[in-house]
Batch of 4 targets.
Target 1
Amino acid sequence: MLAELYRLAKGADVELPVPPASDRYLFVLDGRARLTGRDGQHDLEPRAFASLTSGASYRVTGVDGDDALVLSVTAPPPGTPDGPRGGGGGTFVAHPATLPVVEERESGKRRVYLATEQTTGTRRAHGMIVTYRGDTVTSLHHHPDAESLFVFLDGGGVVLIGGQEVPVGPGQAVYYGFGDPHAVRSRDAGGMSFLEFHVPAGYSVVDV
């Protein structure tokens, strides 16, 4: 995957082309932005998610006094041989409150699905917002057939990187390559939430 972070002051903009054999996803971490493409304009609120059409070009503009922080994930990166099927045409824009949710009461996890075959029609990536209770733990595992990106949104947690436990919090990100062992747990009773991408979508989970 190719992950980029854009900071846009009011009126500042950036052009975001989407490679023909890729999907491009946007997630507004903070502030407000406007997405302009061939199918018109979309206002992007904080925590809004957008899936952009392969082969098209878009412009993202900051619209408020506070800077907009917009995460862009391209899957697969430009120049990668054709892989899994991408999303069906058209721009998809949604707020997490309107998307499918799965509650896992036993583990204490809550998943809001962003980029999936059901929401955007893609097999190129799997994206979701995951919320942990204060006692939630994901044990050590790896994905031999996918790379992973975690961007922490709220609360505090601990991740395993290279065999070492590292505390994480809002605004921090962690990347794991194919087969990298990792584990995640909450750091305090308040729980946490994070944005999670796996590329490609059809990944397997192997316990370590």
Target 2
Amino acid sequence: MTLSPVMDGTLFRQELFRMLVENSSDIVVQVDDRFRRIYTSPSYQEVLGYSEDEVLGQDAMELVHPDDLVTVHSAAEDFIRHHQRMTCMFRMQHRDGHYIWMEGSYRKLGPGEGSIGLLRDISARRTAEEQLKSSNGILSLILEHINQGICFFDGQTRLLRCNRLYATLYGLPDSLVQPGTELRDILEYRVAHGTGPVKSIDDYIAWRAEMPRRAQPFDSEVALEDGRIIVLHHFPMADGGYVATHEDITGRRRTEEMLREAQKLEAIGRLTGGVAHDFNNILQVIGPALEIACETVEDPALRLALVDAKAAVAHGGQLTRQLLSYARRQMLQPVRTDLRRLVADMAGLLRQACGEAATLLIAEGSGQAAAVIDVAQFRSALLNLVINARDAMPQNREVKGGDGRVCEVRIAVETVDVAVEKSLAAGRYVRVQVSDTGTGIAPADLAHVFEPFFTTKDFGHGSGLGLAQVHGFAHQSGGSVSIESRLGGGTVVVMLLPAAPVEQMPG
């Protein structure tokens, strides 16, 4: 069945929400422009007690504590009119009647798609903060139950007290979490063991020394040498010291980055599809005109020029089809196909594409590996992957690959059961894997390889549309494509395509 652009957008949203649910323990919600819920993640029921049927289509404000409604409404109105993102704290009513403090972060989606929000239960943090302000006598209780690292330093940056989670967060030994320990000693240990801040120790201490000048609590972020991101909530004390809670938000940032990347790819796809359609309309005018000219022109030189022009139009048509494939607007003609047999039939072509740069190996398998796919698009996708693998090889066949073996391109086809695979629905899929022992891809480039016109090849040796076409074909077919690579260690590309239902034999 051919997917329309509307159906394709729905699939993208499903993939996006599944990705967020898989990578975050926070509640994920999607609301329309009137803040009515149109999606809730399973954690909504786990945290608030309401099933999906009870809250979908309802006003997202209905569960907000009456005392917080004015603040939330004001923030929401400002968010709708002026901003792309909103963060606020408020209380929401649990199904059993009690209220839970939540921190909500909302980001706008495309026109007509409303907003997506991440909700986090911050009841423990709020409780800790309120207890800390009201009484120092319950400090031990807070330290035992708070789910963040917490530390107390005096005005001379000497440690007064901390909880175990603070020490665990930075890998500190017991000797460095005793009262009176200098902040510099703690930082020097952290730097030596890879958990120190990116800025220098002197700069970090100078930054800490500014805290007493701040009249009220404030938040900041610190990047660590090991790549983690820590959010610090600071509470200055009257004696010039401070209290700070430490929270590792690396996972949350990774989820947000995945969301931004998915939104970027969708936006690029929409733009690409529009450009391709306009380009195709131009070619539809030029092509017939060249045909007529070729039939009427008698001058051999001019006729040869017209033939070259027709070839350029044909190449432009192929380019348009690749762009439409990436944008998932290419009209597919899916049929039930045995992919293992199809790959075997293409063996001669694929070996010719490898040339002398590499040895092509096609793994033999047994059993059914049928999928309902567009055969021409699959052929093009597989050929693109093999050509990319070939271009990653040393030109001399005797030169060893990244892992010491003779340079190879391997193709394997098998049927697999997928329970949870990123954004894919559970079910049976045919996995088509193309691996090579070539030079690999740099980490900085790996995140962009599926973008149209992005290429790691030398100028003039690639259009940057090969992997974009593979990406569009796989997703429009209801599957996915992923890539793993490291410099000097080769590359593995995996397409997962929905397996066709097993044919029943008459009996």
Target 3
Amino acid sequence: MTEEDWLACADPTPMLAFLRDREKEHEKRLRRFAIGCCQHAWNLMPENGISLIIEAEHFSEGIITRYQRDCAVAAFRAVYGHFGADTPILRAAYRCKNIPIDVYTANIIASDIAVAVGKAADPKPRSTSYATAYNAERVAQATLFRCIF
């Protein structure tokens, strides 16, 4: 990927693929990207999802213990089940608990958030308003990705 390709990219997926070979050295940045994608959709996220994301971020930064992070995961599972009641926004929150976050997981989190934003605009995936919101979210994610990396 050239610098020109990088700067013109309107979807974070190709940029994530470019980093795949060096994802270990970029794990903290990948985590920041995944959490940033979730934070961009805070208005759609239920309280337990927000709490889980914050606890996962604090755990990765060494602010809280694994036990405290695991308690947040258990509270989330008690309310939403193992994978977030099958909604994209909650699946994204649940995946943020992973240590480490790799390229694949970061891309799925970003994708789930874009789907949630699209569904918030219109529940019908083939509608124009869904596609507009989804594409706008992917562009915002690509911009966030460039800022972090």
Target 4
Amino acid sequence: MRIRVAVAIACAFLLLCAGPARAQLDTATVIGTITDAQAAVLPGVTITARNVSTGFVRSGVTDGVGRFRLPALQPGEYEFRAELNGFGTVTRQGVTLTAGAEAVINVEMKPASVQETVTVRARSPVSSRR
């Protein structure tokens, strides 16, 4: 009987301590998945978070299944950029992070528009007057 009471008290103590410990987190984490227009995951995407008011920047790269994780971000308003060669850059502005939050930002990227540059290098014919 004494063992059951001791176990019950220990469990109650752990439950009471778990709540305040979570509340003491002073940073946020952002996770997400980056895909293309056909919902295929995109590995190797650089995702950058910039705190608008402080200028603090943290970057990460998506893994083999298109997931990323940016931990330990101070609370505040952020701008997120996703960049990958061959795709247009995607920017998300006005994302507000709060202390202890785990925000999910999923991004769909579209192929970059094709830009063609034609450079012509030729010599003009030399005319001779005789």
